[in-house]
Amino acid sequence: MPLFENEVKVSGVEINYFFVCKRKLWFYTHGISMEQNSIRVEMGKEVHDVSLESKRSEMMIDETIRIDYIDKELAVHEIKMSRAMEDASRYQILYYIYYLRNKGIDCKKGVIHFPEMRKTESIEYNEEYEKIIKEAVESVNIIKKLSNPPTAEKSKKCKSCSYFELCFC
Ligand code: SF4
């Protein structure tokens, strides 16, 4: 069975944005990017570049997913600057595990590093997560095909979102 219906590829960022905001996902997948103006994202890049440098290998797979690194026990590691979008980060790493498992790699564990806070969080892949991820992949593909963005719904997340002006000004 193909990993993606009609060979439409889904990136880790798309899965992350799906869990943050469907409208944000639509903007991103329609080439509307304002991230370069976001100081927060720039800070994220800086932290990303200096932290855990010795272990990081940044694997790009199928030109679709970019993984920070995989250790000897096949745990997938992701480095994040902030815990602000913790759920989305969790699903992003679960998606990487799902993706690798579909390629025959027996990954089960994910580890998210928050170097700024000197914390790590582990997550174990299971059938329930697999179901959530499968549904998310299908939904991402549906949202990508929409001709208009989903309606803006104001939430706490909007404050730090680079699309805020597009939604509410
Ligand atoms: S500002 Fe809010 S509604 Fe608009 S894209 Fe960002 S998170 Fe979504």
Task: Summarize the structure in words.
With 169 residues, this protein is α+β, with helices and mostly antiparallel strands. It has a single domain, classed as Lambda Exonuclease, Chain A. The chain is built from six helices and six strands. The strands form two sheets. A four-stranded mixed sheet has the order 3-4-5-6, covered by helices on one side. Helix 4 links the parallel strand 4 and strand 5. Helix 1 packs antiparallel against helix 2 and helix 1 packs across helix 5. The chain is globular, with a radius of gyration of 16 Å. The relative contact order is 0.20. The site of iron/sulfur cluster has 11 residues, from helix 2 and helix 6.
Provide keyphrases for this structure.
alpha+beta, Lambda Exonuclease, Chain A, four-stranded mixed β-sheet, 6 helices, globular, binds iron/sulfur cluster
Kindly summarize this structure in a few lines.
This protein has 169 residues and is of the alpha+beta class. It contains six helices and six strands.
The biggest beta sheet, please?
Answer: 4 strands, mixed
In this entry the ligands are: iron/sulfur cluster
Per DSSP E runs of 2 or more residues, the count of β-strands stands at 6
What's the CATH class, please?
Alpha Beta
Q: Quick check: average pLDDT?
A: 87
